[in-house]
Each structure stands twice: as C-alpha cells, then as structure tokens.
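Example 243.
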Amino acid sequence: MSNQHTPQPVVVLISGRGSNMRALVEHCRAQPAAYEVVRVLSDKPAAAGLALARDLGIAAAAVPASGGAAGNPSGREEYDRRLAAAIDECAPALIVLAGFMRILSPEFVNRYEGRILNIHPSLLPKYPGLHTHRAVLAAGDPVHGATVHFVTAELDGGPPIVQAMVPVRPADDEATLAARVQAEEHRIYPLAVGWYCEGRLRCRDGRVWLDGEVLAEPVRYDGGDPPGGAPRGGQRGAAPGSR
Ligand code: GAR
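Predicted structure in complex with glycinamide ribonucleotide:
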C-alpha cells in the first residue's frame, strides 16, 4: 500500500463538461485522500471542463489536435506523443479519462500500461462506443449503468473494475437516463481512483487485482448506500452479496 500521507498525482483528460473531473476533485478535497488532481488536459480548447478546472484551482491546458489528421493512425500517434509530453511533465501515478472522446493509439496505451482508467456510460461489455443511453432505451433494457475499467488498446474493452447499476424507468428519455447514470459515475469514479492510489487496485496480465485478490467480476453497486472504502467484490449497495 502506498504512503497514505502523500497523495498520488493524477492527471485527468477530458473533452467536454468535466462533471466527473469535478467529482474527482471535490472527493479528494473533502477528506484526506490518496490522490490529488494535479492537471487537467483536453483535446478541445473550448471544453467547458477546462474553465471549470481553473475555477477549481487546477492547472488546465488544451492539447488540441493539429487539424485534420486525427482520423488516421499516424495523426493519432503524433497527437498522442504531444499528449504524453504534457502528461509526463506532472509524472502522474495515474491517468484518468473522464469523458475524453479520442481513441488512443496502442503506443500511448502501452506507454502507460496499467496506469490508465476510463469511465464509460454502460454496463460493459454491453454498449461500447457512443449513444449508450439511446441504445439502452431502444433495446428496452430494464437496467443500465456505468463502468470504470482499465484502458487497453481495445476501445471500451479493458478489464472492468467497478460498475454502478441504475433502473430504466418507463418515462425515461436519453437526458433523464444520462443524468441518473452520471450521478452514479460521480460516486464510483472517485472510489476506483482512490483504490488505485491507495495501492489496492492493479491490473496485471489483463486481470484486475483488488486488495490482493483477482476480481472474477467487477465490483457492482446497485444504487443503494453510497459506496464505502472497503469493497470485497460482488454486489454492493441495497442488496450486498458475495463475490
Ligand atoms: C461521461 O458520462 C462518461 O461516462 C462518458 O462521457 C461523459 C463525460 O461527462 N465517456 C464516454 O462515453 C467514454 N466512452 P463529463 O464531461 O460531464 O464528465
């Protein structure tokens, strides 16, 4: 376990609003925490989350794409090298993708192997990619949610760590469902980042280790009590079960 008196530096990457970034910052400031958000970076100079980060007193900068080349692999690698340079200035323990909407090159992912987390608005492996709330409504799923996972070169495909589940209600539209999912994102992401920075969470050989044990499946919360700090895997919340 890491030294709990020394918060681990974390860099957060965003493309938009930054509500998860804000939740992470507020969480680590509300109590003695294992991590500190030292820098926020965005590929979008106009991202609202950059201004929000500055309002929160966090160093924030854009690393914009250099026009037109993002879609091809060489453009992506060139971008990712600039992004890595901005990240490495802070020597972070962990890189946290919080609505960062670019596909990362294998070179980038390998460089930070096991040190990148992402949050995705679905119960992965269901609904990778975009428009997850729309897809859930179209499929008539009764349950939806969010997943925190380690990042691998496969889009939204890395090993899952923790999931929060929410009910899908008959009157839901994409906006109401998104809001319900995001409220849960704001609970589970600080939790997972905290576990990592406390030294309790690691990814080895494609498997997730939490508190010295391999997770056979992600830790799950079902919208019950707020997640605590000492998970043992399996279902959490209103109906705790075993792993
Ligand atoms: C979040 O809902 C996050 O799950 C999603 O972007 C949103 C960012 O919101 N990420 C993805 O879809 C990644 N595949 P925020 O900017 O308010 O944190």
